[in-house]
Design brief:
globular; alpha/beta; six-stranded mixed β-sheet
C-alpha cells in the first residue's frame, strides 16, 4: 500500500518533468488549437497514466460527481484521484486556484463516504502564462493528504529574466477549507451533480 502511494507520487512527478522539459511547446500548441480549458491538458495526463500501466477513468460519474481522473485500484486506500486546473493570466487566478482546491477537498470527502477509502489526492495545475503561483508541497488532513503539483508550461517570453510579474505564494491556510467555504463547496457540488445528471441523460439519448 505504502509502495503504491509512493509510486503514484513519483509517477506524477515524472509527468511534470516530461511536460516541462520535453513537451512544453506541443502542449501549449495543443491547448491553443483545441481549446483553452483544462480538459485538453487533463486528457494528456490520462493518456500518460494509461501508457504507464494504469487504467484511469476520465470524468467518471461517481457518487454524483465527475472527478477529473480516477483510478480505482483493488486496494481502495491506493485509489488515484486527480483534480486538474489551468491558468493563463494572473488576474483572478488566486481565487480560481483556491476554489479549485476546495472542490478537490469536497470531492475527496464525498468519495471517502462511498467505496473509496482515499488516503491522498493530487491537485495538478497547468500554468500556461501569467505569474507563477507557488503552491504547498503537501497539505495533510485527517485521514488523507493533498499533493498540489504545478506544471509550468509558460512560454519562454514570460519566464526567467523576461518575467514581468512577481511570483505569488498561495499559502496552506488559504487553501484549507473553513466551515463557510465548505458550504460554498457544497453548493458547487450540488450544481455539479445537476450538470452530471444532464450529461448522463444526453448520453443515454445519444446511445
Amino acid at each position: 500500500m505504502l509502495g503504491a502511494r509512493r509510486s503514484l507520487r513519483a509517477l506524477l512527478g515524472r509527468f511534470k518533468d516530461r511536460c516541462e522539459r520535453h513537451d512544453r511547446e506541443r502542449l501549449l500548441k495543443l491547448s491553443i488549437e483545441r481549446g483553452t480549458n483544462e480538459n485538453r491538458l487533463t486528457e494528456e495526463l490520462t493518456r500518460w497514466l494509461f501508457d504507464e500501466g494504469l487504467n484511469p477513468l476520465s470524468r467518471p460519474l461517481v457518487a454524483g460527481l465527475e472527478p477529473d481522473v480516477l483510478e480505482p485500484f483493488r486496494d481502495p486506500t491506493a485509489t488515484l484521484y486527480v483534480e486538474a486546473k489551468q491558468y493563463k493570466v494572473t488576474r483572478g487566478t488566486r481565487s480560481k486556484l483556491i476554489k479549485g482546491f476546495w472542490q478537490l477537498c469536497d470531492t475527496v470527502h464525498r468519495l471517502r463516504g462511498h467505496q473509496f477509502d482515499l488516503t491522498e489526492a493530487f491537485y495538478v495545475v497547468f500554468r500556461r502564462g501569467g505569474a507563477l503561483f507557488e503552491l504547498p508541497r503537501e497539505i495533510p488532513f485527517e485521514g488523507w493528504t493533498a499533493f498540489p503539483l504545478l506544471i509550468d508550461l509558460a512560454p519562454a517570453k514570460v519566464v526567467g529574466s523576461r518575467q514581468r510579474e512577481q511570483p505569488q505564494v498561495v499559502s496552506e491556510s488559504e487553501l484549507r477549507p473553513t466551515p463557510a467555504t465548505r458550504d460554498t463547496s457544497s453548493a458547487a457540488r450540488t450544481s455539479q451533480r445537476r450538470k452530471s445528471g444532464r450529461r448522463a441523460r444526453r448520453r443515454l439519448r445519444n446511445d
